Amino acid sequence: MTLPARTLASKVPEITVAFWVTKVLTTGMGETTSDYFAVAFDPVVVVPLTGLALVAALVVQVRSRAYTPWLYWLTVVLVSVFGTMAADVAHVGFGVPYLVSTLVFAVVLAVVFVVWRRVEGTLSIHSITTRRRELFYWITVLATFALGTAAGDLTATVFDLGYLGSGILFAVIIAIPAVAYARFGMNPVLAFWFAYVVTRPLGASFADWMAVPPARGGLGLGTGPVSLVLLALIAVCVLYLTSRKSRQPSS
Fold first, then answer.
1. DSSP class of residue 5?
2. Which residue from 88, 130, 153, 182 has the fewest beta carbons nearer than 10 Å?
């Protein structure tokens, strides 16, 4: 059933510091969890299962009529894990170089933006009040995760910056839209999506640095423990966001 344009409340959270912190944590968890699953389980089994879990979460999320913190962030976590798997399968499974996959995912993301803009007339996340716009939003989110994964691996391995060096690089890059928006009046929609894309390689690079062994330039904490710690931090953030939402007056 197609609903009228304004029948839904906003389906995305308020863009605050807590949003960005939670977003970066989900990117890191997606990276290390995907790596852990790839070693602990048969990828032929775990990749389709993760995809099915993502589809199920998306169905529930899209069918809901308002933003629910735990459901929204559960969907983001699953997008993060599956988006990482998609980029890794392209490289490991099909031998696609990171430079090629980065360019391909960048083109895919650009096409999604163009189509979304032409169909809906806006890319603002504050306009996510219809089913169709929300579908565009989640397709975009998935594309940003796949692009960010490939870009982070590209800088860490092909450009030989290492995971820590890549994390520092993307920390500098993500400051560009923040400063440009705050000081020079950068378009807020452009600034948001610029920063949103960069959060993926930023969080993933630091998570990889903590997880991989010292021989690969990391701290050697392991993908499993790092994933669990990040999951706990995400849970704390979601509890905070839930309590904050419950204190807001209903419209």
1. T
2. 182
